[in-house]
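Hi Y.,

Following your request, here is the sequence exactly as I used it, all 124 residues.
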Amino acid sequence: MMELNLSIQYHGDRALIQVGGEVDLATCPQLQAVVVELVDRGFHQLILDLEQVSFLDCAGIGVLVDARQRVQAHDGSLRLVRPRPLVWRVLALTGMTTVFPIDSSPGETLATELVGPRTPSWPA
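Below is the corresponding structure, written out as tokens. Let me know if you'd prefer a different format.
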């Protein structure tokens, strides 16, 4: 089983999850477990930094959608940050760029109020 590189930074009631590697059927349970734990611990404003994600398949999309539903059940939000062009393409082809707010940097996301959808502005 391939490993995902996951690291978490806490910013008040927000959690920034930095994801690295391939997000696929084999690695999705790792990301899912982190999201469930964070939501259970009261972090309902999640930011996923996808800069180091080299691959995302439909199982990965499923984890993102599930994570969004989990945080929204607590009036929270999930934002995506810095997807690489290949990952952006998968998100766009599956219609996820209209579902998830997507930012070009974690700083932009942390400075933004995390409630409410926004039109993705990246990549330019």
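The mean pLDDT is 88.

Thanks again,
Q.
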